[in-house]
Amino acid sequence: MAKKQFKAQSKKLLDMMIHSIYTNKDIFLRELISNASDALDKLYYHSLQQDVSGLTRDDYKIEIAVDKDARTQTVSDNGCGMSAKELEDNLGTIAKSGSLDFKDGMENKSEVEIIGQFGVGFYSAFMVADRVTVVSRVHGSDEANKWESTGVDGYTVTPCEKETAGTTITLQIKADTDDEKYGQYLDTYKIREIVSKYSDYIRYPIMMDTETQKLKEGTENEYETVTEPTQLNSMVPLWRKNKNEITKEEYDTFYQSKFYDYEAPLHTIHSKTEGQISYDALLYIPAHAAYDYYTKEFEKGLQLYTNGVLIMDKCADLLPDYFSFVKGLVDSADLTLNISRETLQQDHLLKLIAKNLEKKIKSELEKLLQNDREAYEQFFKAFGLQLKFGVYNGFGIHKDTLQDLLLFYSSSEKKPVTLKEYVSRMREDQKTIYYACGETTDKIDLLPQADAVKSKGFEVLYCTDDVDEFALRMLREYDGKSFTNICASDLDLETEDEKKAVEDENAAARDLLDKMKGYLGGAVDTVRFTGKLKTYPVCLTSEGALSLEMEKVLDRLPNSSGAKAQLALEINRDHPIAQKLRDLSGTDDEKLEKYTKILYAQGCLISGKPLENPVQLSELICELM
Prior knowledge:
Number of domains: 3
Number of strands: 22
CATH architecture of the largest domain: 2-Layer Sandwich
């Protein structure tokens, strides 16, 4: 029989289907299985309407077989089958979907979940096969027909024999090349892997004869290789079951096997949403961060299914960056897919799902914070840094979403606290939220400024992550309270009388202080006396928008611009060193210079600022000793 040409206007379209649309060859089997599932759905629908099949739902199945010698893979179903005309119409016309036509003709389109939309998935078989043969027989008919093609050169449709109704697709697998190992699609392991990844939740059993080792009957330790039918898919998605039917162990086992984690998740979120868009979501908050989580190699995203068929392994658009630690999946039949079904078209429904998921994740984290503080603190230890980056990124656009999820170590509570908890304990006369930055809470606790603030009865939040102060600056305020770095020059702890006394003393000692500033050669912008220090002789404070801790963080960044904080060297007016400096001024300026440099070095050491010349400090101390 002469070959017929495809009804599409040019062979270029089919060539594009085979070589350009699909990026992953493995999905050809997903497409063939999905088509088989659609065929079974159609027959099941007709059997409900007309009682014509003589089969129950339990009789429906999809079968996969391989013949390594003949180099063929076969996918069969006992679904509705296709007539010669349907073979001609559905397979001879590229981008015509018989499944979509079937659904369009249904009165109630929700009765059957049809997967196929575009009528191009079948042609993905040519990515791995030199020849594709389709033998099909319609239920209730004795006639069978064979469609056969080697690709762009056309196809034939001829009568044939077929014992049972349904459709069998046989692929003549291509020969291996240096770049492509097509023979893998004849291996049981590879087929199992593809089915498990893409088609595990097809609603009908996917069967395949596999070899297993069994104890030989009548023996105690002699085994034999037995070939028997094996179901490759689990069929029922866990997320489509009612929550009250699922145990914690089932949730945990699913997570650990699906997302390859050695530890059970910290928290599980299972939700079903119906309305403008309907979808099921099964989300997990891991108990620990992945080894590459805080690296640029990490890829965020949720698995995306449509009717139980995996479409994307990591759909990044479903999660905001600050919730990128969440693992899980979304299953929806309402999304608009691109023609290859490998990626989504950007539409408002996808954005709607993402917005709903964001609200749900935030709500669940708030519940965890309220109901299981220990678990939340474990979560925050692993992923709190990401939430803080979320506040900082976008110039604080997401601060309202994240601010109540943040934790900071408290000087008074000696544990992590929320901003809401801090504000609830504030004194009536307190106008600001005090915080301090450093490498560790112990080092922050030793700061002279921390001692000064705590002695006044104020609580201080200790910030030990590089991003902390940047995030607080983006928050600007919380519940009407501003944030104040205790190492800033405008700490404002003294009474008006105390301030006036310090101002007068600084004015009187202006020549001394200017001289000391000159000795430091521009390392500080100001030298002054202060009354806020209790027992410490000296400290460094910052003036302006850039703090000393922010300077240190920026200095560690690649291609740092060398931004510098404006620093003030503050000397305790009540410490004996203050009088020593006054005595040296004008009488021994050489020694005054040495004292000045030692005091500056001491301020650097206390604040964690690196010393530019530690050898000089050692020599100065030895000279004065």
